[in-house]
Every structure is written in structure tokens, then in C-alpha cells.
Design a protein that fits this description.
The chain is built from nine helices and 13 strands. It is of the alpha+beta class.
């Protein structure tokens, strides 16, 4: 992945709010739902989302700025470490740091952790035991789009030995959830298991709360005052939502059964928060109407006297 600051078009001194604003602008422009009939932007959308995921996390951003991790979030290899071609090919003796022989296809596992992180961009691996132990396990990371985590699917994952396996993503997979691939560790590691930690990419419109989906939808002044049926996005596509007359800004409405499918617990709901939005250009007719109406119909929305 390229420099996350360049991908979002912000300077390194940008505040968290400026980073978020830049991401939302790009995400709405590049989101696949907005690109019907267009091609070439899907990868850019993924890159922009990955960049925001890194820069929106204060710890990850600080570590990236210090050069401790790369743009994918992977740990950087120790300075001066060199992995010989013989060790990569799995033949002949090769020397690791300090001149220790790796012998055949073996190499120094103390440093392999960081090397694999740089090669495959999958995040830091946990320390591995000596290479002659049986059934060694390895841990990798895998980024998954929000909707794919919600609905389930398959995603390719490259293993340290170059093999590519398809990982089944169960519907309702959560950020940080760990999946187990039995017996998929490289043969030189004793055929142990691969543990895959899922990192769910953020979505520009949806957030998850347990089995429920949350989103905010703008409505016009007329729709809020008079009521209307509007179209809103859900994880299953657009559905109709009836806005009652007099709906206030911030009102929360429920779409039953439009959330996530949870094993043994049915399906969650989708909660829509209404955001009453005035026109960008305020005309004299609306201003004069509100002035006359408010003079005849005064009402309070804050405690009298204000905060003490």
C-alpha cells in the first residue's frame, strides 16, 4: 500500500478530524455502490479504507510515523537483517544474524516473524518455537470488507511458503475474530495450524453494534415536518422507510430483521438515525416564513437560564 497520507490527500500534520473528513469524502466518491457501470476504482477504495484504518488509530499512526510499522500495519524487519537466497529456496546452509547456520530449509525463527510481516503485509506474527518441533502454529492477519464480514464469503490468503488458500468468512464475522485453518502451516513447520485474525474494514455509512447495524440518513425539512417514505441503504440493499410527520432531528427508527444473522439468535435490526438537513442556499421566502411562524408560535428547547 502507498503512503496513507498521500492516499487520503492530507499532510502528516493533519488532525484526526481532518483525516476523517478526507476519508469520508473519498469513500463516498469511490464506494462500489456509487460506481455502477464504472471500473478501476474498487482497489483505490480498498486502499483509501486501509489508509484511514491506520491513520484513525492513534497508536498505529504514531508507530507508522516512527517507522516501526509499514503502511499495511506490518512490523518492519530489524535493521541489517538479510535472508539469504539459499534459505528462501530451502536448500543449502544459510547464515542468520550472528552467523548461526539455518541448515537446509530452516531459518532463524526469531527474525522470520518480522520478515514474513514485510513480505506479506499481514501484520505481526507471534513468536514461533524452534523449527524442529512438531505441529507448529502460525498467526496471520486478513482484512475483510465490512459487507463481506456481515454477509459471509471467501477471501484468498497467501501463506508464508507462497501457497494461497481460500478462507471462508462466516456471516457475522466480527473485527478481531480468529479463524482456524487446520494443518495448513508450512510443512517445514510440522504441519501445524494457521490462525487467522480478521480485521474488518470500516464502512462509510454503516457501523455495527452486536447483531444490529446503525446508520444516519439525512432528511429534508419538508420530509421531517410533513412525513414521507424515503429509500435507505441496508446491508441487503435499499428498502423503504416511513418517516412520520413531525419527526425530529436525531430520531431513531428501526428496520426489523435488517441487521446481522447470528447463529442461534436470529437476525438483528437496522437502526436509522434521522438527520434533518436544511437547504444549503437559504432563500428569502423560507426565512420570512420561519420568522413569522416563530413569532406566533414560540417554544423552548433548552432549560430557561442556561447552564450554571
Amino acid at each position: 500500500m502507498n503512503d496513507p497520507y498521500q492516499l487520503l490527500g492530507v499532510p502528516r500534520t493533519a488532525s484526526a478530524a481532518e483525516v476523517k473528513q478526507a476519508y469520508r469524502k473519498l469513500a463516498k466518491k469511490l464506494h462500489p455502490d456509487m460506481q455502477q457501470g464504472k471500473t478501476g476504482n474498487e482497489q483505490r477504495f480498498k486502499d483509501v479504507t486501509a489508509a484511514y484504518d491506520l491513520l484513525s488509530d492513534p497508536d498505529k499512526r504514531a508507530r507508522f510515523d516512527r517507522g516501526e510499522i509499514d503502511a499495511s500495519g506490518a512490523e518492519r524487519a530489524p535493521a541489517g537483517f538479510r535472508w539469504s537466497q539459499e534459505a528462501q529456496r530451502g536448500r543449502g546452509p544459510a547464515s542468520g544474524p550472528g552467523g548461526a547456520s539455518t541448515g537446509g530449509s530452516r531459518f532463524n525463527f526469531e527474525f522470520a516473524d518480522d520478515i514474513f510481516s514485510d513480505l506479506f503485509g499481514r501484520g505481526r506474527r507471534t513468536a514461533a518455537p524452534p523449527p524442529d518441533a512438531d505441529g507448529q502454529d502460525i498467526r496471520l492477519g486478513l482484512r475483510v470488507p465490512f459487507l463481506e464480514a456481515v454477509k459471509g464469503g471467501k477471501r484468498p490468503l497467501q501463506l508464508p511458503d507462497g501457497r494461497v488458500v481460500n478462507v471462508t468468512i462466516p456471516a457475522g464475522t466480527e473485527d478481531g475474530q480468529q479463524l482456524r485453518l487446520r494443518g495448513q502451516a508450512p510443512q517445514g513447520m510440522g504441519g501445524g495450524d494457521v490462525y487467522v485474525t480478521i480485521e474488518v474494514e470500516p464502512h462509510p455509512d454503516f457501523t455495527r453494534q452486536g447483531a444490529d447495524i446503525l446508520s444516519t440518513v439525512p432528511v429534508t425539512l419538508a420530509e421531517a415536518v410533513l412525513g414521507a417514505t424515503i429509500r435507505v441503504d441496508t446491508v441487503d440493499g435499499q428498502v423503504g422507510l416511513k418517516v412520520p410527520p413531525g419527526a425530529n432531528h436525531g430520531r431513531r427508527m428501526r428496520l426489523r430483521g435488517k441487521g446481522l444473522q447470528v447463529a442461534g439468535a436470529g437476525r438483528g435490526d437496522h437502526y436509522v438515525t434521522l438527520a434533518v438537513t436544511l437547504p444549503e442556499a437559504m432563500d428569502d421566502e423560507l426565512r420570512q416564513f420561519v420568522e413569522g411562524w416563530s413569532d406566533r408560535h414560540p417554544y423552548r428547547v433548552r432549560p430557561e437560564g442556561g447552564a450554571e
